[in-house]
Design brief:
The complex is a heterodimer of chains A (497) and B (822).
Chain A (H helix, E strand, L loop, with lengths): L1 E6 L7 H5 L7 E5 L2 E10 L4 E9 L1 H6 L23 H10 L1 H4 L7 H4 L3 E11 L3 H9 L5 E8 L9 E13 L1 H16 L10 H8 L10 H9 L9 H8 L4 H4 L24 H4 L18 H16 L3 E5 L5 H7 L6 E6 L2 H10 L7 H4 L2 E5 L14 E5 L10 H12 L3 E7 L24 H15 L1 E8 L10 E8 L4
Parallel strand pairs in A: 8-9, 8-11, 9-10, 11-12
Antiparallel strand pairs in A: 1-4, 1-5, 2-3, 3-4, 5-7, 6-7, 12-14, 13-14
Helix pairs in contact in A: 3-7, 7-9
Chain B lengths: L1 E4 L2 E6 L6 H8 L5 E3 H9 L8 H17 L4 E4 L5 H13 L3 E8 L2 H9 L8 H15 L9 E6 L1 H6 L2 E4 L4 E2 L6 E4 L6 H10 L12 E4 L10 H13 L3 E3 L3 H10 L10 H9 L3 H12 L4 E4 L4 E4 L13 H9 L2 E5 L5 E3 L2 H4 L5 E4 L9 E2 L2 E3 L9 E7 L3 E6 L33 E4 L5 E4 L1 H14 L28 H10 L4 E6 L4 E8 L2 H8 L7 E4 L11 H10 L1 H7 L3 E9 L1 H36 L5 H22 L12 E10 L9 H8 L12 E5 L3 H16 L4 E6 L11 E4 L4 H5 L7 H4 L5 H22 L4 H15 L8
Parallel strand pairs in B: 1-7, 2-4, 2-5, 3-4, 5-6, 8-12, 9-10, 10-11, 13-16, 16-18
Antiparallel strand pairs in B: 9-19, 12-13, 14-15, 17-18, 19-20, 21-22, 23-28, 23-29, 24-25, 24-26, 26-27, 29-30
Helix pairs in contact in B: 2-3, 5-6, 10-12, 15-27, 20-21, 26-27
The chains are: A alpha/beta (497), B alpha/beta (822).
């Protein structure tokens, strides 16, 4: 990967002093990712260009990290790191031009402090957000930005553009600032997984952003992306299996929400989906990484409240949450002593790990802990652990099941477990017209979303087949035209069966 | 001579010092004897710490319980002189449905005291023995009422000294009989139909010329026109030793009536009583004695076959208790009643996971159906249905229709075994936790709990309906790494490997670069329903090697494939088939992957490297020494172009299914045959019958490994395939090779490997040659055995959960991390 820095400040060769690299020498610097070479393709009075060429050896790169690293996959070997201006280049740049980046230059101190006419070129800059984002990030810093999208494959024009742009920045900027801009913004634009996040990364950002980041209009996005995702739980068998299924890990992650990959039917899919005006106003990059439990005003909060209220009205004292995800409802049930026995089942081991942590299972008092059973299971297998509860809750679960497998779910829950009550909530697709920016379904893992009529028909059939009666209730604002955002079916087993 | 049942709880009774431990050691295996002293030691470090007695007995009962549940004879060495102690053990035996025998060691008090005195650790005085002796005396008068099957009393030292213990087989244990059997459903007095059925089965009087044995599932009597005639026929056969008969609930009730007990004469009992009333008293007595002696069930053919009137769950096989008999005669009910006022039967067969086939009757059905290796043969002959027999081991049903409706049913004949039966329903315990999957292909495969957990998520979230998911292909390893300059893989190593394993001939098949696809196709929706239990009208599935549907809507592809495969129905004599295929082009399924990963890398390289080359050229022009770096960067630039060409070869635009091609290369299974075991020549020639624009044939050649010329020819063929840009070839033993021989190895082409190892892999071959193949190869072998096992179970008509088990295990093994480039 290549970075060139040119200046036309005369004498242009003073660039060598500023960078602490002699224009007539070729210098090599060992890097953990490979080898960096600094050389000058041109070095004249009028114009001088320094080039930093980082040779990344993917084989060495792969071997330097263990199987436990998050990207133990094929993409570890076939990736763009040797060509694209990623965080590896930022790291090399920071190292090779350390003194220059600090703004120190014993030979030309005044030059180091002076804005200079500079031109910076990056032929292949991975840029999530496209040329537009590159402009939004660099222009406020005084750069004139030329950013051209690179086509994916000229042999297949229908494939469109790649995620790379050919970037040229021109402007009159202090060299140290220019280097710091690159150091921070290259990984931000790349926004690939950051494999080397250490606790001191926050300090590094603060130092490198001194004097410019605080006032940058996109500072929130920059900070969040720079610090990246915390991949503490990311290396999972699921990620590997997803890849075996001809799918990259990325494909598993929800496209919009930026949170650890998980979890449907486990998760709270709509936490990040357009859900009321508040969320729609959020930047296109979605909510902060830290998933905070949705407040009572959010749809998921209302849904949980509706489920809890219904369970109380039904007089249920033992409840199992099927597809409990990260345990929000389970936690709420445990907080109410009337629920003497609480079960939580999910198919995702990772969701259960997170749930256990969020519920502080290790430190839970014995009396409370004894009320709770948390286990892995799947709704397509009969399971005697599901029996013996007053009520079962399927909250935003059925839409994560392929329609042909719904019959199995039905038999497992209504035919085998047969609790007295079953609560089912699912999106009402009619309501989606209120989500202005939504294309498709509300969550990438949704296999379907139903109209009110479709849900009512399914509920009636299930109830009839298994000796239940069903009442349908709205959850959230009940729009006179299109109904509520969420629909709930409350099934109750006939007395005699 | 003491005789105890082979499976029983033997309770020793005697005072301290009566010689129980010595007796137990002499007559039983050390592991069979559980002593209270030993348990006391385990829970207190002191065998004589009386305060630990409650904990010691808790442990003793636990150990005894575990042993009994596993079907092991167990001897309890404790004083057991009090009723309460014995009662607890008898209850334990009953809970596990085994019989209990007591052996009382009644030795003189002074002997016991003397022996204790001689043992320093028993420093309690004679008072203990005297008290125990008093308890024993009191017990002996009524111990026979405790509930033991037998109480063996050894009175005096000589009796104890000279006793010997023998074992008696359970009445239900006829495992030595291997058949063949003709198992006959509920007759209910339909003599004419029974005679006709026996004739159809080839019986001549009470004998079968081929020495077959008849097994009656009970309910010979009641309702029908000639109960005495049926009884006479069956009794003659049983007495001649050519038939067995288990008790039905109707025999049970009839015996009680004949014994003069007051029973309600409903459900056709009156007919039997009237008909028997017209018989001479000797016959009545013979029939009564015969029916009275009928036992609850039989275990036959080395335990592979169980016959009971109303069926029997696995934990009851070979056991004896009131509830075993009750289950066998009446089945289990849910405690609810249906709209006709009849008890709702608990569908025990749905949950049945035993290896033994269970054949039964009791519940009239229109048509017998297999449910988890169980089958109900009651086809309601007396209600105007049919009388049905199962030929074992042939698994063949033979039936004759009823001559008329002999008796009006209370309710119409139901579907098989009741209402909401779901034979394809899988249970979480079929897959959960650490498991060992037995295969008949040389290996028992262990599945780790965490891998099963990962597979459960993938299986339930992404896989196709498990009823279609009858197979997952094994992973395939490359050959040992080539040392040839410029090559990582080469056919030479593959040939050497198979030759060393004793394989004489291999087949080399062109490796299509696409997406692996397993296709399961049924000729009609009816076949799909009958054979796979799929009732949604679909006629097949096409899925990836991790069980995901190949396309969001598989319907059209299944449809087209089914049409293309039409010649196979007649050729294979089967209404369904499972095929192993590759689906082309690669971009059809993997388009997103190609664009996001491969094309992206190509795009970045295409723009970055030429610019780096020109910067270096400019520097070189200035006289700087960048020679090495320049030539290296030029080479990388051309590698990147080769990389781009490598993936682009496998991409072509498709519009729906237009442009999609399927290359089947193996017929996995069809009705009655796990064809995956056939030689590859058969597969290739059979698949050559397919003639459709959808189908791509697999180019191949056979190689005699003992011929250098043959090998060289194949190498040249591989060179030409890969020079054209082909992925490479798969080398497989031409015929199934048992043992630890790889089912196939893939020899991939030099250019193709750029997609796998990166554009510049040719620059670092030395490093890459240090790759580790062991794990991949071991996984390939295990997954291959599991796949064959699944196909064999499928073709033999085993229940859904049995097919699912090895398929799930393949997915679980695949969740193990292994170098993805291999």
């Amino acid at each position: 990967m290549l970075l060139t820095i040119s200046t036309t400040a005369r004498p242009a060769t003073d660039l060598g002093f500023l960078l602490h690299k002699h224009p007539d020498r070729v210098q090599e610097f060992g890097q953990s990712s490979g080898k960096a070479t600094v050389f000058y393709p041109e070095a004249g009075e009028e114009r001088c260009t320094a080039a930093l060429l980082l040779e990344v050896d993917p084989v060495t790169l792969a071997r330097s990290r263990g199987k436990g690293s998050p990207d133990f996959s094929l993409s570890q070997y076939v990736n763009d790191r040797p060509y694209a201006a990623s965080s590896l280049l930022a790291v090399a740049l920071a190292d090779v031009f350390r003194t220059a980046r600090a703004g120190r230059c014993a030979a030309r101190p005044e030059l180091a402090a002076t804005p200079l006419p500079l031109e910076i070129r990056l032929p292949a800059l991975p840029c999530r957000g496209g040329p537009d984002l590159a402009r939004r990030l660099f222009e406020p810093l005084g750069w004139e930005v030329s950013a051209d999208a690179v086509p994916l494959d000229e042999g297949f024009p229908e494939w469109g553009d790649s995620r790379y742009v050919a970037l040229a920045l021109t402007g009159t900027v202090r060299l140290a600032d220019a280097l710091n801009h690159l150091y921070v913004l290259l990984p931000v634009l790349d926004d690939a997984k950051h494999y080397w996040i250490a606790p001191d990364e926050v300090d590094k950002l603060v130092r490198a952003g001194e004097g410019w980041l605080g006032a940058h209009p996109e500072r929130t996005l920059i900070t969040r992306r720079y610090l990246g995702r915390r991949w503490t739980l990311a290396r999972t068998a699921l990620a590997r299996l997803a890849e075996l299924g001809d799918e990259t890990e990325e494909a598993l992650e929800p496209a919009i929400p930026e949170k650890p990959p998980s979890t449907a039917p486990a998760g709270e899919p709509e936490e990040a989906a357009p859900d009321g005006e508040q969320d729609e106003a959020a930047p296109a990059d979605g909510p902060p990484d830290e998933v905070v439990p949705a407040g009572p005003r959010s749809l998921s909060g209302k849904r949980r409240e509706a489920v809890l209220r219904t369970l109380e009205e039904l007089g249920a004292t033992s409840v199992i949450d099927l597809g409990c995800g990260q345990g929000e409802l389970v936690g709420a049930l445990l907080a109410r002593p009337r629920f003497a026995r609480v079960g939580g089942m999910d198919v995702s081991p990772m969701a259960l790990t997170i749930a256990a942590r969020k519920l502080k299972l290790e430190r839970m008092p014995a009396v409370k802990r004894e009320r709770l059973t948390l286990f892995q299971g799947a709704l397509t297998y009969t399971d005697k652990r599901l029996t013996g509860y007053d009520a079962a809750v399927l909250m935003e679960v059925i839409e994560h099941v392929d329609p042909p497998r719904l019959a199995a779910l039905e038999r497992v829950v209504f035919g085998h477990a047969r609790p007295r009550h079953v609560l089912v909530t699912t999106p009402n697709i009619e309501y989606n017209v209120h989500y202005a920016f939504l294309t498709g379904l509300r969550h990438p893992d949704h296999r379907f979303e139903w109209t009110r009529a479709e849900f009512a028909a399914w509920a009636a059939e299930v109830a009839a087949r298994h000796g239940y009666t069903v009442a349908l209730l709205p959850v959230g604002e009940d729009d006179p035209e299109v109904g509520p955002p969420t629909q709930m079916g409350v099934f109750t087993r006939d007395q005699r069966s | 001579m003491i005789s105890v049942p082979e499976l029983s709880l033997v309770v020793l009774v005697g005072v301290s010092g009566s010689g129980k431990s010595t007796f137990a050691a002499r007559h039983f295996e050390p592991t069979q004897v559980i002593s209270s002293d030993y348990c006391r030691g385990l829970v207190s470090d002191d065998e004589n710490d009386q305060s630990a007695t409650p904990a010691a007995f808790e442990l003793l009962h636990h150990i005894v319980g575990v042993r009994l549940s596993r079907g092991l004879l167990t001897v309890v060495d404790a004083t057991n002189v009090q009723y309460g102690a014995r009662k607890a053990l008898i209850d334990l035996a009953r809970r596990h449905d085994v019989l209990a025998d007591a052996i009382v060691l009644d030795v003189p008090e002074e002997t016991a005291i003397e022996r204790n005195a001689a043992r320093p650790e028993r420093d309690f005085g004679p008072g203990v023995v005297i008290r125990q002796r008093k308890d024993l005396r009191r017990s002996l008068s009524k111990i026979s009422k405790d509930g033991f099957r037998k109480v063996h009393v050894l009175r005096g030292l000589d009796a104890v000294e000279n006793a010997s213990v023998t074992y008696e087989k359970a009445w239900t244990d006829r495992r030595e009989l291997t058949g063949p059997f003709d198992i006959i459903g509920d007759v209910h007095g339909c003599r004419a139909e029974l005679e006709e059925l026996l004739a159809r089965l080839g019986w001549q009087g009470p004998r079968h010329p081929e020495g077959r044995t008849a097994v009656f599932v009970g309910d010979l009597v009641d309702r029908g026109p000639d109960t005495p005639g049926v009884l006479r026929l069956v009794m003659d056969m049983v007495e001649a030793g050519t038939a067995l008969c288990v008790a039905g609930n109707h025999e049970q009730k009839l015996v009680r009536a004949l014994n003069g007990r007051n029973v309600r004469t409903s459900h056709g009992l009156q007919e039997s009583l009237d008909q028997l009333g017209a018989q001479p008293p000797e016959f009545r007595e013979r029939a009564r004695a015969f029916m009275d002696a009928l036992i609850s069930h039989y275990q036959l053919d080395d335990g592979r076959l169980v016959v009971a009137h109303a069926g029997l769950k696995e934990s009851f096989h070979g056991r004896a208790s009131g509830r075993v008999r009750s289950f066998a005669l009446y089945g289990e009910t849910t405690g609810e009643t249906d709209e006709y006022g009849l008890p709702v039967r608990y569908p025990w067969a749905d949950d049945y996971r035993g290896r033994a086939m269970v054949v039964y009757g009791h519940t009239p059905t229109v048509r017998p159906e297999w449910v988890n290796n169980t089958i109900c043969l009651d086809t309601g002959c007396v209600f105007g249905g049919a009388l049905t027999a199962l030929r074992y081991p042939e698994r063949e049903l033979v039936s004759v229709p009823a001559q008329k409706v002999w008796y009006e049913p209370v309710k119409p004949l139901g579907g098989p075994a009741g209402s909401a039966r779901e034979p394809g329903m899988l249970d979480i315990d079929d897959v959960r936790g650490t498991r060992y999957v037995e295969t008949r292909f040389g290996t028992r495969v262990k599945v780790m709990e965490e891998n099963a957990a990962a597979a459960l998520e993938v299986m339930s979230r992404f896989a196709v309906d498990p009823r279609w998911l009858v197979y997952l292909p094994p992973t395939m390893a490359p050959p040992e790494t080539s040392t040839l300059d410029g090559y990582l893989e080469h056919p030479a190593e593959a040939f050497a490997e198979f030759a060393a394993a004793g394989v004489g001939e291999v087949v080399c098949e062109e490796k299509h670069m696409g997406s692996r696809a397993v296709a399961v196709l049924a000729r009609t929706p009816e076949v799909a329903c009958e054979r796979f239990g799929v009732t949604d009208g679909s006629t097949g599935a096409v899925y990836t090697r991790t069980g995901r549907p190949l396309f969001a809507d598989n319907g059209p592809l299944v449809e087209r494939l089914r049409e293309a495969c039409a010649p196979l129905w007649a050729e294979l004599g089967s209404d369904w088939v499972a095929l192993d295929c590759e689906l082309l082009p690669w971009s059809a399924k993997a388009g997103e992957l190609i664009r996001s990963q491969y094309a992206s890398v190509g795009a970045a390289a295409r723009v970055a490297l030429p610019e780096a080359v020109s910067a270096l050229e400019a520097a070189a022009g200035r006289g700087l020494d960048v020679g090495g770096l320049l030539s290296r960067t030029r080479r990388r630039s051309s590698n990147a172009a080769l990389f781009r060409d490598a993936y682009a070869r496998y991409c072509w635009p498709v519009d729906g299914l237009d442009g999609v091609r399927v290359a089947p290369f193996q017929i996995l299974a069809c009705e009655g045959r796990a064809t995956a075991l056939e030689p590859h020549a058969w597969h290739l020639s059979t698949l050559a019958l397919l003639d459709s624009p959808l189908i791509t044939h697999t180019r191949h050649r056979f190689v005699s490994l003992d011929s250098e010329e043959s090998r060289a020819g194949a190498v040249a063929w591989w060179e030409s395939l890969t020079a054209e840009g082909g992925e490479g070839m798969v080398v497989k033993p031409a015929a199934y090779a048992p043992g630890r021989v790889q089912p196939g190895v893939k020899v991939r082409g030099r250019e193709y490997l750029r997609i796998i190892y990166g554009p510049d892999y040719t620059e670092s071959l030395d490093v890459l040659r240090r790759r580790f193949l062991g794990k991949k190869r071991s996984m390939a072998l295990r997954e291959y055995a599991l796949g064959l096992e699944a196909l064999t179970r499928l073709s033999e008509g085993e229940p859904a959960w049995r097919v699912h088990e090895p398929v799930f295990a393949v997915l679980a093994l695949e969740s193990e991390p292994v170098d993805p480039r291999l």
